[in-house]
């Protein structure tokens, strides 16, 4: 949500051209109009205004699904008027969510007996899933500390500085200290050794990411599990692991089935995944799965009975749509293991096409890894004249939305561009994007650098004399300033 700001006088009304045959006066922008307008006019006004939004298919900033099959679109529209929370009234929808939870739990190797059902819930996305998982860890830890007669008012969570902003939200909203392992140039994920060093008796869990938002890299959950097991043994603590598999949860089981990152590792107690990322459903669905019912404290579950029978719920909100749950079930049965593997393999191959095209230009360092989320994160080898933000801006002219951002501390001096490869990003588009990036590079080469050549020369001269140039001093000040700002407020709004 964006907090809305007050209007300026010039923004007070909306004018429409096409709707003018129905509407003679302009509409107030921030006040509800006094009178009604015809439905055709309302449609036309809104439709026209929305034309100015970017094209979702060319939005390479987002992991979130932008294309589904028309058959699924039909199912979505058919269930658009069902409130998911009315479980007694829509028992089949509830049953479909339970099937999804169980399928995903099996995919993550939850240790379930033949007749045992999985413990998990559908959410609005990974952010809600993470809040729920975090609350379960916090409550379990508090219960344990209370039972031992120890203070339980200073919980902390250990993560890498590369965590998505939702972890910071969890920490702030639910009063848990976030202890972040800093990154360094060339190493952009949480170092398990440092993470385990930071664990203390108040650590409610260590959160590992399967598929860092910033460069798609998988963190080494196996090593983390081994190191933490040793620390737990030595200290007598039982610090658990949560895996934020927002993107990787629907990639690793298909592309890297041998990789141990999930419930095969004993300390992994819960996992979240975004159904709307590589689960291949439109925005609005995520999942959290617990290893067993012992890992979800009973007192967090609410029982409501006024909709019919007893309904246990563990969510942050009450009402929500049913369509996304149904769409997730559609994808799981429509594609099956084979279909998901094909989609993920195609994405990986298209990522390689893009990566190779960029490498051939000789101008970029690739920051992403081949084995991870199919995305390409890259930065200029030499950004002394032009930077990645300029490339991002210029690509907009071709319709492409490619974000540029700085890495978190202590790698904040590194800027990257990131292209997320989704199912609907074809090889032709990958090739087209390479061509457009090359065009942007040649245009940039012809225009004066943001940083004047004189300053670059001065830097070279100063380096020869062993002194700091004006440019270097400027950069140092900028870096310190950025670090100051980033330390106060995480700015990685990339999703
Ligand atoms: C690693 C990670 N965790 C959590 C999230 C938040 O996910 P959602 O948008 O499903 O709430 C993201 C989003 O990109 C992510 O990359």
TrEMBL record:
Family annotation (InterPro entries): Glutamate_decarboxylase, PyrdxlP-dep_de-COase, PyrdxlP-dep_Trfase, PyrdxlP-dep_Trfase_major
Record-level GO BP terms: L-glutamate catabolic process
Chain positions with N6-(pyridoxal phosphate)lysine modification: 277
Gene Ontology molecular-function annotations: calmodulin binding; glutamate decarboxylase activity; pyridoxal phosphate binding
CDD domains: DOPA_deC_like (cd06450)
TM segment ranges: none
Classification via Pfam families: Pyridoxal_deC
Reactions catalysed: L-glutamate + H(+) = 4-aminobutanoate + CO2
Cofactor field: pyridoxal 5'-phosphate
Gene Ontology cellular-component annotations: cytosol
EC number of the protein: 4.1.1.15
Signal peptide, first to last residue: none
Gene3D superfamilies: 3.90.1150.160, 4.10.280.50, Type I PLP-dependent aspartate aminotransferase-like (Major domain)
Keyword Lyase annotated: yes
Keywords: Calmodulin-binding, Decarboxylase, Lyase, Pyridoxal phosphate
Protein family (similarity comment): Belongs to the group II decarboxylase family.
This protein's name: Glutamate decarboxylase
Organism, as annotated: Punica granatum (Pomegranate)
Lineage: Eukaryota, Viridiplantae, Streptophyta, Embryophyta, Tracheophyta
């Amino acid at each position: 949500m964006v907090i809305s700001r007050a209007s300026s006088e010039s923004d007070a009304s909306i004018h429409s051209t096409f709707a003018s045959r129905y509407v003679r006066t302009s509409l107030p922008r921030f006040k509800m109009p006094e009178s009604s307008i015809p439905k055709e006019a309302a449609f036309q006004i809104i439709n026209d205004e929305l034309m100015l939004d970017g094209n979702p298919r060319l939005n390479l900033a987002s992991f979130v699904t932008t294309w589904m099959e028309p058959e699924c679109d039909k199912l979505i529209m058919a269930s658009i008027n069902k409130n998911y929370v009315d479980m007694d009234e829509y028992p089949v929808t509830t049953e479909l969510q339970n099937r999804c939870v169980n399928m995903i739990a099996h995919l993550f190797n939850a240790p379930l007996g033949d007749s045992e059902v999985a413990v998990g819930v559908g959410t609005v996305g990974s952010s809600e899933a993470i809040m729920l998982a975090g609350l379960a860890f916090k409550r379990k830890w508090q219960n344990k500390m209370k039972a031992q007669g120890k203070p339980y008012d200073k919980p902390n969570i250990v993560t890498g500085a590369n965590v998505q902003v939702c972890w910071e939200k969890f920490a702030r909203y639910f009063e848990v200290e976030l202890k972040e392992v800093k990154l360094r140039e060339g190493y952009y994920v949480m170092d398990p050794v440092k993470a385990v060093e930071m664990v203390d008796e108040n650590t409610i869990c260590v959160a590992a990411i399967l598929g860092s938002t910033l460069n798609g890299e998988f963190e080494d959950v196996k090593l983390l599990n081994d190191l933490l097991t040793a620390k737990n043994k030595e200290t007598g603590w039982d610090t658990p692991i949560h895996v934020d598999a927002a993107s990787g949860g629907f990639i690793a089981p298909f592309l890297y089935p041998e990789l141990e990152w999930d419930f095969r590792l004993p300390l992994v107690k819960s996992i979240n995944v975004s159904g709307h990322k590589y689960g291949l459903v439109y925005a609005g669905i995520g999942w959290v799965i617990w290893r067993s019912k012992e890992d979800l404290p009973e007192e967090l579950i609410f029982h409501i009975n006024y909709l019919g029978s007893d309904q246990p719920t563990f969510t942050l909100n009450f009402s929500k749509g049913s369509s996304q749950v149904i769409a997730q079930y559609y994808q799981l049965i429509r594609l099956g293991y084979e279909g998901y593997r094909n989609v993920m393999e195609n994405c990986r191959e298209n990522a390689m096409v893009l990566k190779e095209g960029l490498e051939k230009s000789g101008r970029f360092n690739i920051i992403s890894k081949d084995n991870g989320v199919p995305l390409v994160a890259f930065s200029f080898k030499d950004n002394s004249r032009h930077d990645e933000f300029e490339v991002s801006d210029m690509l907009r002219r071709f319709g492409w939305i490619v974000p540029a951002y700085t890495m978190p501390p202590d790698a904040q001096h590194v800027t990257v561009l990131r292209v997320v490869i989704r199912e609907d990003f074809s090889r032709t588009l990958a090739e087209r994007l390479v061509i457009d990036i090359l065009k942007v590079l040649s245009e940039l080469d012809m225009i004066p650098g943001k940083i004047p050549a004189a300053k670059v020369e001065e830097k070279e001269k100063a380096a020869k004399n062993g002194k700091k140039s004006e440019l270097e001093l400027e950069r140092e000040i900028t870096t310190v300033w950025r670090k100051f700002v980033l330390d106060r407020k995480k700015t990685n709004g990339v999703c």
